[in-house]
Design a protein that fits this description.
Blueprint: H1 3-33, E1 41-42, H2 44-51, H3 55-67, E2 71-74, E3 78-81, H4 86-111, H5 117-131, H6 135-150, H7 156-168, H8 181-198, H9 202-214
Antiparallel strand pairs: 1-3, 2-3
Length: 233
Amino acid sequence: MTMSAKRSSIREIRVEENLRTKVESSLAAAIISGELEQGELVTVPALAAQFAVSATPVREAMLDLEKRGFVESVKNKGFRVTTVSTQDLHEIVEIRTWLEAPAMRIVATHLKGAPLETYRTLADRIVANVEQIDFKGYLAADTAFHLSLLELTGNRRLVDIVAELRKQTRMVGLSGLRNTEVLRKSALEHHELLDLLGAGRGAAAEQLMVRHVGHVLGWWAGIVEADGAGNPH
């Protein structure tokens, strides 16, 4: 095999891997947001046509999603989006709250009086994606924002664990909240969090994170939340 042939093969592999990653990312965002509903059956040929790619990267992406528990294979039919129980969601949100909220006290010690431009840019991107109804972009920016803050704790394992929990989180009602004030309010909370962190108000930032993560069970899961006085809103 000539050197040029080897390079050509490497490029082809990289293109296939890139396509698989893009397809998996798009499908994961659709499942997390509820655009692809729980129990919905999808086929590789139909998805390949939708993405305008060959069946191979789609099939590989679906197998990766199956390993993550997002879909399950149905013999001779395709893949079915798995159902996440309320108990599953409660457990994931509970663990995320235990980990992400208290960490804000540590993050506040690093960001008090520090430049926040990088984080503001991510927060702006979150708001913009909500306004553009781009759930894939929203979820990517939201994850990047929160993980970048957690990195300031210096605890790599914490960041990895939260990243994995976020991958498992389903926000099945998110797609139904497009063009709503509640979704925009959640997006704007990222700027509110930065205001608190920049002021060194770690305790207040922790409280905001408890509420923010709780939206997964509230607005995004179709459960009516209560305000501070216990009144539904």
